[in-house]
Design goal:
This protein is mainly beta. It has 2 helices and 13 strands, in the order ββαβββαββββββββ. The protein has a 7-stranded antiparallel β-sheet, with helices on one face. A 4-stranded antiparallel β-sheet has the order 7-12-9-10, with no helix packed on it. The chain has a two-stranded antiparallel ribbon with strand order 4-5. The radius of gyration is 16 Å and the shape is globular.
Length: 203
């Protein structure tokens, strides 16, 4: 494993071995069975290309154009499933934070999905880092600064990479330019990319 630091983002390359990746992917499937994927509509009325669900005390949702955390799945009205222990183990080892995360947002990227530059700023506290886990197809990850207009750099995240966004990078703009699928099934998700982000949320 190697660690690259780009604009304050700590990128832990090959953090998870093949077995750990498969175990986390299977744990995510268990979450998805209880809390099906959603395709949120942004505040501008445009459906996102990424599908998402959550595990933990709260989940991140978009309702009536408002971005927020909710204790219940918007469609099932049930509480979110607990964060799988396999995922919690990554947080405990990589975050450097003593408290547990409140939310694990699970994003599914198909071949054409992307995520525009954004900040993770709905959590109510920014002292704890955000920990991101990549599984499946690689993707080009873009990192900027505290203003949307700041210069950016990009890097490719592979399956098993873990990114820690803390300190100066906690509120930095970031996004996913594109998924770099080669048309062949990958050994973890077969098709597409799973991205898990672990967050501490107040309220």
């Amino acid at each position: 494993m190697t660690v690259d630091t780009i604009r304050g983002f700590e990128i832990h390359r090959e953090y998870l071995d093949a077995d750990a990746q498969l175990q986390i992917a299977e744990a995510c499937r268990g979450v998805i069975r209880q809390a099906p994927f959603l395709r949120p509509v942004t505040a501008w009325g445009k459906p996102m290309s990424v599908r998402m669900t959550s595990a933990g005390r709260v989940g991140w949702v978009i309702e009536r154009g408002r971005y927020r955390y909710s204790a219940n799945h918007p469609e099932t009205a049930r509480p979110w499933p607990p964060i799988p222990q396999e995922v919690m183990a990554v947080w405990q080892a990589a975050s450097g934070w003593s408290a547990s995360p409140d939310c694990c947002l699970i994003n599914w990227y198909g071949p054409e999905a992307r995520m525009g530059l954004h900040q993770d700023k709905d959590e109510g506290t920014f002292e704890a880092p955000v920990v991101s886990i990549s599984l499946g197809d690689p993707a080009r990850f873009r990192m900027g600064g505290l203003a949307r207009s700041d210069p950016t750099e990009s890097t490719v995240l592979a399956s098993g990479d873990v990114v820690v966004m803390g300190g100066a990078a906690r509120l930095a703009f970031h996004g996913v330019d594109r998924v770099l699928a080669d048309g062949l099934p990958n050994p973890v998700t077969r098709r597409g990319r799973l991205n898990l982000t672990l967050r501490v949320v107040t309220g």
